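Task: encode each sequence below as structure tokens.

Item 1
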Amino acid sequence: MTNYILDTDIISYYLKGYETVTNNVQNYLSQTSKKRLTFSEITYFEILAGLEYKMAFKQIETFKQFASKSLILKLSYPSLQKSASFFGSLKRKGIIIGTPDLLIAGVANVNDLTLVTNNQKHFEPIEGLKTVNWNKEIQQF
């Protein structure tokens, strides 16, 4: 079975109850032996920062509970090196992708994870990064 890492937008959609995302998360969790979702500490920061900005204190608690049941991957020297490599390669081609997304892509790539994102087109220029969209259609796991 493919292992996945969730992008910030997918977690946001899940927490908001988007039906397709919610169904895919439930299907994935029922099919995997790990019984938990994976995302990066960059995504943790992005979600929490957005909620703090909105002063959405109830949602912050909901997110923290969600995160406590998930595997949160940390940045590592290999993931940082991969992110820097992605940056250099893309910049030479005139393509700019934001630092948080490059860091998430690096974590996904070095851990051999498929990035679950609604922004597949955005991540498309990153060679070697596998993506799937759980907001588009129900997946088969």
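Item 2
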Amino acid sequence: MNQRKEAVTMGGNPLTLLGPELETGVPAPDFEVLNTRLEPVTLAASKGKVRVFSVVPSLDTPVCDTQTRRFDEYADELGDEVAVYTVSADLPFAAARWCTANGVEHLQCLSDHRGMSFGNAYGTHVEELRLDARAVFVVDRNDRIVHVQYVKELTEEPDYEAVVEAARIAAGS
């Protein structure tokens, strides 16, 4: 598996990412994760929609909490043509608890815990921590990546406006 040493940092300390560094224009890799009801979810499950994959290390941290709440608000604004997901290595039960406790209704939390399938396919698997690094991917209706951001410092937030703009353009709105 591809290793990208010192690809991201946490508190300034370098970490290794496993998997490829994806770029815009490439086909979105398939993956299999679990939703909060323990059902498998793949890329094909949302075919025909624009997809935003907001990737966070853990929902129970301040920046991940903020990022997920923000994308929940954007999911409501973007409408039915765009599916928004938060992907983390949190257990599905922890993700369900967090979503319920925080009133998250417009996006779906997905767990990469079982096999790190998403992290390995999208290059977000932090080898040292067995967590996913902070990143955002926008995938169009034809399963092509139209926006990608790997956040270099895990304690920083992504560029929300760039993500929403890419999702709106891909959705044609």
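Check on item 2: DSSP finds four helices and eleven strands in the chain. The chain has a mean pLDDT of 95.
End of task.
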